[in-house]
Amino acid sequence: MVEKRIQPLARDAMAYVLAGGRGSRLKELTDRRAKPAVYFGGKARIIDFALSNALNSGIRRIGVATQYKAHSLIRHMQRGWNFFRPERNESFDILPASQRVSETQWYEGTADAVYQNIDIIEDYGVEYMVILAGDHVYKMDYEWMLQQHVDSGADVTIGCLEVPRMEAVGFGVMHVDAKDNIIAFVEKPADPPAIPDKPDFALASMGIYVFHTKFLLDALRRDAADPNSSRDFGKDIIPYIVKNGKAVAHRFAKSCVRSDFEHEPYWRDVGTIDAYWQANIDLTAIVPELDIYDKSWPIWTYAEITPPAKFVHDDEDRRGSATSSVVSGDCIISGASLNKSLLFTGVRANSFSKLEGAVILPNVKIGRRAQLKNVVIDHGVVIPEGLVVGEDPELDAKRFRRTESGICLITQPMIDKLDI
After folding, report:
1. For burial by CB atoms within 10 Å, which of 25, 98, 208, 236 has the most?
2. For the Nucleotidyl transferase domain, which residue ranges apply (predicted)?
3. 385 annotated to a ligand binding site
């Protein structure tokens, strides 16, 4: 007798990525693109982490719900995620808010973004749904979360971070018992409930949910029929299940993917200019907290064909050089010096310019003798010759978007207004 092979649960799951958010705290960085489409790490976009996690976990059916200024995001996915094949039982659906349910109704909330596409989900006939946020940076094997969901008999399993208790005031927090059953879900509590086995920590929601598909679709239909619902997972669906069903917390540390160089579970919401700058600059460390070089868990993205990076000139005061920096393809460092900086594809840094703590998005041109410190420069900006940023806080704040910690976001409209 031949034993039946047990397939990974991920093979019978669909990942549904909620990627419609604007990300308004990133200010001008999201004027032309949704937060999941913001560049990250030299080559990728933020959404590539959730999508790569799903792919690496063995999930072969993926849907992405888009809404706010979605063109950049959709174009990226069409270019970089177009390799799924229906004949291999694979699918990749881009699901814009297209008024499919009502001619006047766009996605009204995260739950509605799934509800409006119920017919597509049902057509695939998958057993499990993995609902993901498309705007966080982390590496996670969802198979472990699926296994816990099935083993525990939960109606919903919620991915959770262990965070210092008083740092959880800005999150949705799970109040759990000793077996990680969720007793209550509290949104942004002033006094977050502690984890029973770690009283100094709280469990914060990652916005990752696992359901049996039938249960989820029934829950969405019930919610859609409630005129008082805001159509949101965190505000409506999850609290209802916590009260009337079985909700279980899944701790991120159990499924976080780490290479030999990563010691702590890494998860970042890069939703502010400061957090975005810091997470990118962290990658320039000798041993960064996030290992993007781990070939066992690759972060897939649009593999743009570019020539190699190039460093030219070798005079005493005009040397193309970089220390503790990440430099992407098609960059030319022409007599400029970089320190602790991250450059995306196609940057041109011209002679005598100096960059320190700089996150430079694609196709930026940096003029001669520019001195840039602790900056984020948006896609395609042309930095004029001799521009100095990072030395005069008051002047920086008048010209650019300067945070309290001193990081300056620079966009082309800001440059165009300069009187130089």
Report:
1. 208
2. 16-284
3. no
